[in-house]
Design brief:
CATH class of the largest domain: Alpha Beta
Distance between the termini: 32 Å
Shape: globular
Strand content: 35-45%
Largest sheet: 12 strands, antiparallel
Structural class: mainly beta
Helix content: 10-25%
Radius of gyration: 34 Å
CATH architecture of the largest domain: 3-Layer(aba) Sandwich
CATH topology of the largest domain: Protein Transport Mog1p, Chain A
């Protein structure tokens, strides 16, 4: 994800040593350990580009002085003994500019691609292979972009980043952009046109991008310390230094630039979330000592005022805890643009817009005692709504619909009526919780199915909030909680034979409680090879004579599971392969290839050993060896494959005869299975994919990967921008594709898990405007592939030649789309530490296209067996493409 940052500066006199001098004045000597981070510097040019406002050497000097001093001051806190100071220094410098084949792009994926490709080319020229702990600054001449600086968003643990300086040599721009590499967003401003200090987002109260110039993450240069929310995100203060409050109390806040003590207050008032800090007197900061209050709940895009057009087209923020803050004006602060601002934003008193919360501070140079008065919460939480038990397929499922959360405080627990008896109910934090602006530090409590007692009973639930208010009871529901795991043995029975395919039922897979609901056979990559939803004896397909090895996952209908290594071997001798006497005729139409029907008296002889099943249809027969009768097969009038007898003939080979009158013989078969290394597991719910609420995306999802294609440790979700047409679909060898403009709908998902062996695993589905447009796309791919193979690669926008080494794809499956409707690619991209292996299978049918992409790092190529595995998955995609139109 990239962050476009528009920095239109109005320079101030920078006082880079202000904070250090202030520490000494207080008699507090800061600890100044150096976490030194190098910034390598390169420049770019293109045909017709202008001169740079500052050359690479001047930028290096700027980093070593002003940028370095700023970040040392931001990360050196009064009284800190943990040595967390961060220092930036100039690293390697590339004197000659990198010549681009076109003008630097300013927006969208093209701008992100420019940053990535230029970074790679720069380090090639600098001779640095491992740049995982290095930053690179790209200096660009004027390209018509509205921004002066751009960077890719990092995180608190990032130790690298890519920055672009556009037609600027300003140290503040560099300093600001480095903030984004730590995962810091913008310090913005909540401005209400009615003169109020706070209010709900809407037509009156707007979010002014960059307008909260309290620190470097606005767009006015300032030596002021980072706000404490950003310090918290960077790890400069921990959770214990943020006081979450739910009722009236007094909190002593240390100043925002101190290392120790409580440094911030978090509270929420209905749907608004507030972060409060105390700022002391500092030289050159432009505000009075007092409280600074930020809103963490994000605005709707319609309420956003930004000089960046891309912000207006962005998706809504959502509920997750964000990177931006919106500062309130508690005094006479004003901000319209970076050329029109002034006044102080602090105060010693404040009230939230609802009137429910007031703040009164008694301040000193070393801190402030803040009296927080909160109106008593007398409103009970909403009534819980239980989801239907038919949906309780996982022990970890939350059994209540969203909406039971308390608006003013939080839910502290639950009570239950079980068969009408009142009692406490265990509650646990939400699984897979991610911080939200309403719950930034602690996962809220809920009730999972695993929290309920085992048995069958009627259940009703009510919630209790922090203030002791209790909700109404949920509707009573009859539930059955089963904690028993499936019992699994090695028993398999043959149920059908069709050409070289044998259907077997896993008779040994059973669950005495809720019954089976899902049985998967999974390969080593996590792909589900076969799946069954049968309640008992799930059926799978074997190929005659071929062994099947997989991880088997067996789940009952409440999510209790068993997992282990499954190995199945089989032998099958059809009746046609036997030696025969009597009158026989083919019975393939009813029983499969090789089955024979006897008319009159007949005998079929086989030479075999060991344990085997005699597969027959209708009629009766006997099984003998020499003079010994081994089994009697009872008569049946049903035209259906059945196991007539199971015989163990011993370890030595023997002649086995099947004799009878007017019967059907299918053959002799044996299935040997081993289910080992077993353990109990719980079934996990799939991660929610909200894009499927859109009818078009739901229809497109039928063609590519879905959660059911993979074992449960994998996550299948749309990639960023994967449901829009902004990013290209066809980008093989960086060729031009006129068909891109004919795309109507797109869905690209990525498949991820912890420690994935793949750097990228994805399917992409595109609906083109017409079948002719899809055919054009296929022809363009064929042409691009041929040219890329001829040239051995392509030259990217930064002038770097990217090598492609193609390998043959041997014997592609016949079930793929035809040669005129597909393109298959197996190649190594680049060499050395930048090498990647790519499998890309493009298939078309009518207006539809599906691409399957598998990428792994390194020079170790995919084996033929691995290629064959993914080609079989491409067959699945071909079958979906050939299915009913959607």
């Amino acid at each position: 994800m990239s962050a476009d940052k528009i920095i239109t500066m109005r320079r101030r006199i920078s006082i880079y040593l202000t904070l250090i001098l202030a520490f000494v004045a207080l008699g507090l000597t800061p600890a100044l350990a150096v976490d030194e981070r190098p910034i390598d510097i390169v420049s770019v040019s293109w045909t017709g580009s202008g001169a740079l406002p500052s050359n690479v050497d001047q930028i290096a000097a700027t980093i070593d002085t002003k940028v370095n001093a700023s970040w040392r001051s931001f990360t050196t806190l009064v009284g800190d003994t943990q040595d967390r100071t961060i220092s930036f220094v100039s690293g390697k410098i590339l004197k000659a500019p990198i010549f681009l084949t076109a003008k630097m792009p300013c927006i969208g994926s093209a701008a992100t691609d420019f940053m990535n490709t230029t970074r790679i080319e720069a380090y090639k020229r600098l001779g640095i292979e491992d740049y995982s702990n290095r930053y690179i600054l790209i200096i660009a001449p004027k390209a018509g972009c509205v921004w002066s600086g751009r960077s890719q968003m990092g995180s608190a643990t990032s130790r690298n980043g890519t920055l672009v300086l556009h037609d600027s040599g300003d140290p503040f721009v560099i300093t600001h952009e480095l903030g984004h590499t730590f995962g810091l967003g913008h310090s913005n401003f909540l401005r209400c046109d009615n003169g109020k200090k706070d209010g709900p987002w809407g037509d009156v109260c707007k979010a002014v991008e960059y307008g909260g110039i309290i620190d470097v993450m606005g767009n006015i240069e300032t030596p002021s310390p980072l706000n404490t929310y950003y310090q918290w995100r960077m790890g400069l203060l921990d959770d214990s230094q943020v006081r979450q409050i739910w009722q009236s109390e007094a909190v002593t806040l240390a100043p925002s630039d101190f290392a120790n003590g409580v440094r911030a207050i978090y509270l929420r008032d209905a749907n608004a979330a507030y972060w409060i800090e105390y700022r002391r007197t500092l030289e050159g900061v432009g505000y009075k000592p007092g409280l600074v209050i930020f809103r963490l709940d994000p605005p709707p895009i319609a309420s956003l005022i930004s000089p960046n057009p891309e912000d207006q087209a962005a998706a809504e923020f959502g509920n997750l805890l964000g990177t931006d803050v919106w500062m309130l004006n508690l005094d006479k602060y004003r901000y319209s643009t970076s050329n029109s601002y002034g006044g102080s934003m602090t105060a010693l008193t404040a009230t939230t817009y609802s009137g429910n919360v007031t703040f009164t501070a008694n301040a000193s140079e070393s801190g402030a005692t803040v009296a927080v008065a909160i109106k008593a919460d007398v409103t009970p939480p909403p009534t819980p709504v239980l989801i239907p038990q038919a949906d309780w397929h996982y022990p970890s499922i939350e059994i209540m619909r969203p909406g039971f959360e308390d608006a003013q405080t939080y839910v502290t627990g639950f009570e239950a009526l079980i068969d009408g008896v009142l009692g406490p109910l265990s509650a646990t934090p939400r699984d897979n919780w991610a911080p939200t602006y309403m719950d930034p530090m602690t996962a809220p409590l809920t009730v999972h199915m695993r929290d309920l007692p085992e048995g069958s009973y009627s259940l009703a639930i009510r919630s209790v909030d922090f203030a002791g208010n209790k909700s109404l009871w949920s509707q009573s529901m009859a539930v059955t909680i089963d904690r028993g795991h499936p019992v699994v043995t090695n028993d398999f029975n043959i149920t059908a034979v069709n050409n070289d395919q044998i259907s077997v039922a896993w008779a040994g897979a059973k669950d005495a409680g809720s019954g089976l609901c899902q049985t998967n056979l999974v390969n080593s990559d996590g792909l589900v090879l076969q799946s069954s939803a049968a309640k008992s004896a799930p059926t799978f397909q074997l190929t005659q004579g071929a062994a099947l090895k997989a991880t088997a996952q067996i789940y009952d209908c409440t999510g209790n599971g068993a997992i282990g290594d499954l190995s199945i071997t089989n032998t099958f001798s059809t009746a046609y392969k036997s030696s025969r006497t009597g009158t026989w005729a083919a019975a393939a139409n009813s029983y499969g290839t090789g089955a024979l029907k006897c008319t009159g008296k007949c005998t079929a002889s086989f030479t075999t050993r060991g344990r085997f099943d005699v597969l027959v249809g209708n009629g009766a027969a006997v099984v003998t060896s020499g003079s010994a009768k081994l089994a009697t097969i009872p008569d049946s009038k049903t035209t259906k494959l059945r196991i007539g007898a199971t015989v163990d003939s011993g370890d030595s080979k023997k002649v086995i005869r099947v004799s009878g009158s007017n019967f059907v013989l299918i053959g002799l078969a044996s299935v040997t299975a081993n289910f080992t290394r077993t353990k109990n597991i719980d079934r996990l719910p799939a991660v929610e994919d909200v894009s499927l609420l859109d009818s078009k995306q739901s229809a497109m999802a039928k063609f590519g990967f879905n959660a059911g294609d993979f074992s449960q440790e994998w996550t299948v979700l749309p990639m960023v921008g994967g449901t829009a047409l902004d990013d290209p679909s066809l980008d093989l060898c960086n060729a031009s594709y006129a068909s891109e403009k004919e795309r109507v709908e797109r869905r690209q998902v990525t498949v991820t898990k912890e420690e994935s062996p793949f750097t990228f695993l994805s399917t992409e589905v595109v609906r083109y405007s017409t079948p002719a447009a899809a055919q054009l796309a296929q022809k363009e791919l064929v042409k691009a592939l041929a040219q890329c193979a001829k040239d051995g690669g392509y030259k990217d926008a930064a002038g770097s030649f990217i090598t492609y080494t193609f390998s043959e794809i041997k014997s592609p499956p016949n079930a793929l789309m035809g040669e005129s409707a597909r393109v298959l690619v197996r190649t190594q991209i680049d060499t050395g530490v930048r090498a990647h292996q790519l499998l890309a299978f493009y298939q078309f049918n009518g207006q539809m296209f599906t691409g399957l992409y598998v990428i792994k790092a390194g020079e170790s190529a995919f084996t033929d067996a691995q290629v064959a595995t993914w080609l079989q998955e491409a067959v699945v995609m071909a079958n979906r493409l050939s299915g009913p139109a959607v």
